[in-house]
Amino acid sequence: MSLLPEKEQALLLNHPDAETRFATYVARPSVHVGLAALTLVDEGFLIFLFVAVGLTLRRLGERGEHVLARALPWLKRGAFAAILWAIAQPLTDSLRAMLLYPGTPSGASWFIGIDLTVAGPALLLAIAAYATAWALEAGVRAERDLADFV
Known about the structure:
Layout: H1 6-14, H2 18-26, H3 29-60, H4 67-100, H5 116-149
Helix pairs in contact: 3-4, 4-5
């Protein structure tokens, strides 16, 4: 019930048999699969972001030449995953509510819930990380070009 918007939660609490109908609806295997798929999409980008940051740090900790050049692709992948995660947040929240709405007293309906207080800063930080990776990669390329020239 906590996955629903507050308005729908209040409707469920005000109708005595609505909670039972909602619990029966949520117990369906198709609803469980839908919720699991949304969680996988929602958390999958975040997990890949953590893996990419870990591999970036691992590459930066190695010895040898061109350490930064070997780490940058993973930093860019992580930044791209962060962008996708920031975009997926409001989408999966909306889809989750729409998946659960048929079990509520108001029935199936469309729900678009975009909370920019969460998605906005996440998206800005992800874009900043991607721009930083892009700038560092351009610097590495320029350094290599200059080394080839000299």
